[in-house]
What does this fold into?
Amino acid sequence: MKTVLITGANKGIGFETARQLAELNYFVYLGSRNKEHGLEAIKKLNDMGIANVETIVIDVADINSVRHARQEMETKINSLDLLINNAGIAGDQPQDFATGDVENLRRVFDTNFFGAVQTTQEFLPLLKKSSQAAIINVSSEVGSIALRTETGRNTNRDKYNAYGSSKTALNAFTVMLANELHDTGISISVNSVTPGYTATDLNQFQGAKTIEEGARPIVKLAIQSDPGITAKFFKDGGEVAW
It folds into this structure.
């Protein structure tokens, strides 16, 4: 049974991704900043008849929490097959760069970018012990430079500038880490994926896609069997331009 750690998995797209992967016979560790919320998520899954799940307390913005989570995981498993960096925050509004609050920008980056980087660094040793490991960074189309510069697209561009720029940075991390691992002979695929505009508390449930639909491209990428697919950015139905 393959093992997967999903950060920010006690609710929303992370929870639904955990549910779908557990039903596909993965053993899923649900990362949650709060133990109580994590246990509530496990109970929901248990009530659905899903037993191959467990919660791990991890606040990706807190390096001590990340290290403690890694140490706890090492007592449970010898290797990790899949890391899904899903934890993310939208940040406060407004997010325009001309006058926006820089502290808000830092908070967004601490979770969405630095959190993913330090979580990946801590769990790389366990991933390296897998025969076929993968890292999936949950990104967003608002982090695509190509799409943000299309004429006439995204008329309300400034609304998610802090969030979007953190996802642009996450995409850069995806490509650079994938190349770094490849160049050093480490066979771990690293890709970004966007769920699309999904109705979650991140956007006050205004998204057009359901939670089930939003999790679909993440799960599809998770179960793909080609380790040579790396340094890519996917959406439901294909690739996204960087």
Remarks:
- The beta strands are 3-6, 27-32, 53-57, 82-85, 133-138, 188-193, 233-235, 238-239.
- The first helix runs from residue 12 to 23.
- The domain at 3-239 is CATH 3.40.50.720 (Rossmann fold).
